[in-house]
Design goal:
Blueprint lengths: L1 H31 L15 H10 L6 E5 L5 H8 L3 E6 L2 H13 L6 E5 L12 E5 L5 H11 L5 E5 L10 E3 L6 E5 H4 L16
Parallel strand pairs: 1-2, 1-4, 2-3, 4-5
Antiparallel strand pairs: 5-7, 6-7
């Protein structure tokens, strides 16, 4: 009977440990491995210095903001605390749900939205401020996509890796915390047109 009890107890402990490991794997895996996407874009949390550098590039800016590949939502939440209506697009559903929880916890859920979506299937044309945490493989194609979609008043802020062709208008930070800002009106060569008004002639 004692041996039988030990056997039952052993099975219960094994089942409990196994269940815990499965649950832990389900929760942790999406945070440390990239979701399936065209370009491998692993989740690497932004440092506090990077966030401050991004916010510095947003000074005196207004309008809507989008974070492409928003991860755990920390950039979106920080921007919302500065008064932006901020949106994050992220393919990993676990990170999106966690971002929504963080926004609710920090009291900015009314000024934030998070979507589960592939960045290549989204149009960013309605945003005037774009933040990107990318990898070198995706930057050339993303550069073309943003150039086609964004208006001349947009600003793109790239973190960790710059765009290959655009020349940054502003740069701050160093090392992995470097942030580059690109104003579309200069990158695209947009010019403000001055309308010439000809005086009416008397008949």
């Amino acid at each position: 009977e004692a041996g039988s009890r030990r056997s039952v107890w052993g099975l219960m402990v094994t089942a409990g440990v196994s269940g815990t490991l499965v649950a832990l794997y389900a929760v942790v895996t999406p945070f440390v491995t990239p979701a399936l996407r065209r370009v491998c874009l692993p989740f690497v949390p932004a440092t506090s210095t990077q966030i401050q550098n991004v916010l510095k590039m947003l000074e005196n800016r207004s309008g809507s903001l989008v974070d492409i590949g928003s991860g755990d939502g920390r950039i979106v939440i920080a921007a919302a605390k500065r008064g932006f209506k901020a949106v994050g697009y992220e393919l990993n559903p676990w990170l999106v749900w966690y971002s929504r929880y963080r926004a609710w916890r920090d009291g900015v859920h009314q000024n934030t939205k998070f979507y589960i979506s592939d960045l290549w299937k989204v149009s960013f044309s309605r945003y005037t401020n774009v933040v990107v945490f990318g990898v070198p493989q995706m930057m050339p194609e993303l550069e073309k996509k943003l150039e086609e979609e964004l208006e001349c008043n947009a600003r793109i802020i790239a973190c960790r890796f710059p765009f290959p062709c655009w020349v940054p208008d502003h740069t701050t930070g160093e090392g992995i915390d470097t942030v580059w800002a690109y104003d579309m009106k200069r990158s695209r060569g947009c010019e403000t047109k001055i309308l010439e008004i000809t005086p009416e002639t008397e008949l």
